[in-house]
Amino acid sequence: MEKTNLHPILSEADIQTLVAQYLADPIFDNRRVIVLIPDHTRTAPLPVLFRVVSDVLKARVKTLNFMVALGTHQPLDEAALLSLVGLIPHERETTYAAVGLLNHSWDNPHHLVQIGELNSSQVEILSEGLLHESVPLRLNRQILEHDVVLILGPVFPHEVAGFSGGNKYFFPGIASAEFINASHWLGALKTNYATNGIQHTPVRAMIDQAAAFIAIEKRCLSFVSSPEGLHGMFYGSPESAWEEAVPMSAQIHIKLQDRTYMEVLGCAHTHYDDLWTAGKVMYKLEPVVATGGRLIIYAPHIDTISYTHDHWIRRAGYHVRDYFLSQMDLFTSVPRGVLAHSTHVRGTGIFENGVEKPRIQVVLATAIPENQCRAVNLDYHDPNDINVATWRAQDPEKRLLVNPAGETLYRVKD
Question: Closest Cα to residue 85, out of 56, 105, 65, 104?
Fold first, then answer.
């Protein structure tokens, strides 16, 4: 149910009061502090939070740095970093000159350090028997050059972990490819259907176990936000703050429907700039598309499948999970994180006797050309032929319009 009215928007004064109260924690005093934050693909009032956190801490700490927990997303240039935290160049050069703004670099081995390993027995238990391998735990080495790390991030329903936030800012947020690929493939094996909006999942268990290897002090300020603003903040350990935030996120970010629909049009938020990120439209709407129905990802501003993984996605295409499981030997060179994205976007289905039968049809109404859509096994619809304002009214019994789509999870009532 959507119950945002139960959680009124916090004013900027409320935010300042709460942050000052939380960060009065003496653990930060005279310490080297790094703050992990999301990138632009998450709805978050970062300009307000960056200023408040910086103003509360910068005079008390030895050093203060903010790192964008990018996972495998593209690094931000200086202009994008300033936009993310709401600074103009003059402020960057004066008031906040001593505050560092850093990108994570997941694929640069010189930026990574191994802090441990989940052995195969641990992984088998954590994954409920779905994975049988050891996973090295490598993360951004700059984190260990600090005394305290503060996670500052939102909590939303999530296709791989169940809910985002908390220790997910370490693994996979500032981790290497090994953990990213293993955890995302585990999420794909469980399926988006059985994971999204579920609090305790095998991937979350794996994330929390990995984070236990981080030997510096950890704190977390989890928050729940929507396009309207910030609804609540929770402070403590990464585990406790996240645990408290999840129920509020579930109330605000999960919308229950009485039934499924034959056609669902999801208008991707403009902060998604490729299909890799706009795939969240599918992840959040898959449960309310009727079997045999169509989900249309409407994003005229997107002309790229993936800025980071385009080559691998074109190699693998978009397929149901069992398409890959039945012939994994053909895809050993493709990162499993890419295969996971592929199956999440394609959705559930079966693969029998060499024939793939997806449960629903996934259609791109984007600036990606039709031949490229079909080459990766997705359908195409000219976005110019869709009038969002009148689309649902043409057949209201069969159609559902979600605008914007990608953060609120739609499910059918039990």
Answer: 65
**C-alpha 172 chain-centroid distance:** 10
State the sign of the Cα–Cα–Cα–Cα dihedral 109, 113, 117, 123: negative
Q: How far is CA 365 from the centre of its chain?
A: 22
For 163, the enclosing helix (H) or strand (E) is: strand 162-163
- Residue 136 identity (one-letter amino acid): P
5 contact partners, CB below 8 Å, separation of at least 6: none
Contact 343, 324 (CB under 8 A): yes
Q: Find where tokens 């790192």 sit.
A: 67
DSSP H or E run through 124 = helix 120-126
Of 229, 407, 377, the residue nearest 317 (C-alpha): 377
Closest CA to 165 of 36, 3, 49, 292: 36
What's the whole-number average pLDDT of the chain?
95
Token code pair at residue 87:
């600074």
Domains of the chain plus CATH, in order, are: 4-254 (3.40.50.11440), 258-412 (3.90.226.30)
**Interacting residues of 29 by C-beta distance below 8 A, sequence separation 6+:** 60, 61
Give the bridge partners for 361, in sequence order: 294
Q: What is the pTM of this model?
A: 0.93
Cβ burial 340-366 (10 Å sphere, 16+ → b, else e): bbbbbbbbbbebeeeeeebbbebbbbb
Give the Å distances, CA to CA, from 303 to 265, 266, 322, 365: 18, 17, 28, 10
pLDDT at residue 6 in the model = 63
Q: Kindly indicate the confidence band of residue 73, based on its pLDDT and cuts at 50, 70 and 90.
A: confident
Average of pLDDT values for 406-410? 96
Name beta bridge partners: 366: 299
> Residue 18 corresponds to which amino acid?
L
First CA to last CA across the chain, in angstroms? 12
* 256-273 tens-digit pLDDT: 999 999 999 999 999 899
Q: What whole-number distance in Å separates Cα of residue 34 and Cα of residue 148?
A: 7
Residue indicated by tokens 């700490």: 61
**Structure confidence at residue 163 (pLDDT):** 98
Q: Is 20 helix (H, G, I), strand (E, B) or coil?
A: helix
Q: For residues 320 and 360, give the distance between their C-alpha atoms in angstroms, rounded to a whole number.
A: 10
Residue 282: its H or E element: helix 280-285
Over residues 396-411, mean pLDDT: 96
What crossing angle do the helices spanning 78-85 and 46-57 adopt, rounded to 10°? 90
Instruction: Pick the closest to residue 207 from 81, 314, 390, 69 (CA basis).
Output: 69
